[in-house]
Write a structure and sequence with these properties.
alpha+beta; six-stranded antiparallel beta sheet; single chain; globular; 20 helices; Serum Albumin, Chain A, Domain 1
Length: 549
């Protein structure tokens, strides 16, 4: 019998292969300047434990994708409320150091074949009874995270899945102390955990969830990951004995996902959306990700020559109205473009941007708000990681359960908690984002990479549900339009709106504007934003920098 692997040994094993194949990097190498960068091997930023594991991979010669995948697998263990390998989905952006290879990977959840547009009827108050679209087995679709990570490694990494997953196995087996926030989320979900064998086995000991500071272990999940490591592939998670176990627990508990649904699932490499402004090119994940909304707002601000306007109430008014227009369109018009008619070209066109800009100019001049319908709702959870290696290759990934612990259900015997991707669909049967067989829901993740002079210089994204697109947008505006260094760009206060007059601004927003905006008709409150994590690379000096807030 082999000896159990230690945490240190797992890290050592997981980076050894990267050193052995460093000469065959999937990305081209770039000459480095003599000046030593702040992070000589590159850096991963987004979650403390994951950051350390990514740093070990980079130090051993792994590229940005290698580091991102190993870090993401670790984050899926040590941030169990935010994400997990059963989380509903992930969105990835990858760029080679020379800028010639810019790709996105769609690893969003897919609805089961049994899903129909009227799957979640609402009551007289517009609510889904018992919140079955958010909590329970009906809330879970096919989880996409593992398929996305495998695709990224196969096409753009240098390491095997076997090596990449070793640190995550150790974390699941040996455990980690629970934070107060995660322990509270667990406690609040106790009634859901009690409804099924997997939840009781993983989360309840003597009928109670663990307390803050307790070491949380998931031996069943460690065994699952070890099996996938032995097979050096996630394929059996979707098409094999593991898939059969997952499907059997769905059937036992009244869920809709079948073995056929799992077998049909694929992560896809897709063409990013691209937007040029002020010598930069912003490359972001396309639908069903949140990047289109971000770029629609940027296109409108470019038409307004927003960056040339002096800071103050008028510029903020224009900014907020551009956000409100983009969000109104997002919530009314967007969905899976393979199964619904979505006016993507129109929303990103110069003519539509000019139309929106003219409406905004009138609103600012007359001191009014634009009238448009929108229905906000809370979305939480998620982890985002941004990575750059010593050569300037970049990667960014957002991966999520959805809200805390997603659907709140766990596959018995596998320790596999499932995300609630089905909650990201609209309940209106005639909506572009209503459920349907194999359909992918509209989500908020928008990992982004920015090029300057054709080379990647920034990887950025955020965690925080529906606040993700706006928080990432603000960072892009600071970096691209206002030419702020990454530390200042991430530190800048951020707004949030989902199309209604209700506006959230961080407390550091200029006090005079916080006082004046209600007189225009905004319903203003101060609130925290999403958490942005970003890395930059200077191709001239080889310097890597990182920021998180």
């Amino acid at each position: 019998m082999s000896r159990p692997i230690t945490r240190r040994a797992a890290l050592r094993l997981s980076v050894t292969a990267a050193g052995a194949v460093a000469t065959t990097l999937a990305f081209p190498r770039v000459l480095r300047a003599a000046t030593a960068p702040a992070y000589p091997h590159g850096v991963v930023r987004g979650e403390p434990t994951a950051d350390k594991i990514g740093a070990e991979v980079l130090a051993s010669g792994g590229n940005a994708v290698d580091a991102m995948v190993a870090a993401a697998l670790a984050a899926a263990i040590c941030a169990p409320a935010m994400t997990g390998i059963g989380g509903y989905g992930a969105s990835l952006m990858i760029a080679s150091a020379d800028g010639k290879k810019i790709v996105a990977i769609d690893a969003n959840s897919a609805a089961p074949a049994a899903a129909r547009p009227d799957l979640f009827p609402v009551d007289g108050k517009g609510n889904v009874p018992s919140r079955v679209n958010e909590i329970g087995w009906l809330a879970a679709g096919v989880p996409g995270i593992l398929a996305g990570l495998q695709l990224a490694l196969d096409r753009h990494g240098t390491r095997s899945f076997r090596d990449s997953v070793q640190p995550a196995i150790v974390l699941a087996r040996d455990g980690f102390p629970l934070s107060a926030a995660v322990a509270t989320t667990m406690r609040n979900l106790t009634p859901t955990f009690r409804t099924h064998a997997g939840g009781r086995a993983l989360f309840l000991k003597n009928g109670a969830t663990p307390a803050a500071g307790d070491v949380f272990r998931n031996p069943d999940l460690a065994a699952l990951l070890a099996t996938l490591a032995q097979r050096n592939s996630v394929d059996s998670f979707y098409r094999g004995d593991i898939a059969q176990k997952i499907a059997a627990d769905f059937a036992k508990n009244g869920g809709l996902v079948t073995a056929a649904d799992l077998a049909a699932y694929r992560a896809h490499e897709v063409t990013p959306l691209r937007f040029g402004w002020l010598g930069h090119e912003v490359c972001t994940a396309p639908l069903t990700a949140g990047g289109l909304t971000m770029l629609q707002c940027l296109t409108t601000l470019r038409a307004l020559d927003w960056h040339q306007q002096p800071a103050g109430l008028a510029r903020t008014h224009a900014y907020l109205e551009a956000l409100r227009l983009a969000w109104s369109d997002r919530l009314a018009l967007l969905g899976d473009p393979t199964q619904a008619s979505v006016p993507q070209e129109k929303l990103l066109s110069d003519s539509y941007a000019s139309e929106c800009a003219n409406r905004i100019r009138h609103a600012v001049k007359t001191g009014i708000l634009l009238a448009q319908p929108a229905t906000p709702r809370p979305h939480g959870g998620t982890i985002h990681l941004s990575a750059v290696d010593r050569h300037g290759n970049m990667a960014a990934i957002t991966l999520t359960h959805g809200n805390g612990f997603g659907a709140g259900v766990t596959v018995d015997g596998l320790g596999l908690t499932l995300g609630h991707g089905m909650s990201r669909f609209e309940t209106k049967p005639n909506h572009p984002n209503s459920p349907g067989p194999g359909k992918r829901p509209l989500h908020n993740m928008c990992p982004t990479i920015v090029l300057r002079d054709g080379r990647p210089v920034l990887a950025v994204g955020a965690r925080g549900g529906r606040k993700i697109p706006n928080a990432t947008l603000e960072t892009l505006l600071q970096f691209v339009a206002l030419k702020r260094p990454i530390e200042d760009a991430v530190a800048a206060p951020r707004p949030h709106t989902e199309g209604t007059p209700a506006i959230e601004l961080e407390s550091a927003w200029p006090a005079a504007e916080l006082t004046a905006l209600p007189s225009l008709g905004y319903q203003v409150k101060t609130a925290v934003s999403a958490t942005v994590s970003a890395v930059t690379f200077d191709p001239r000096s080889g310097e890597s920098r990182a920021a998180l807030r």
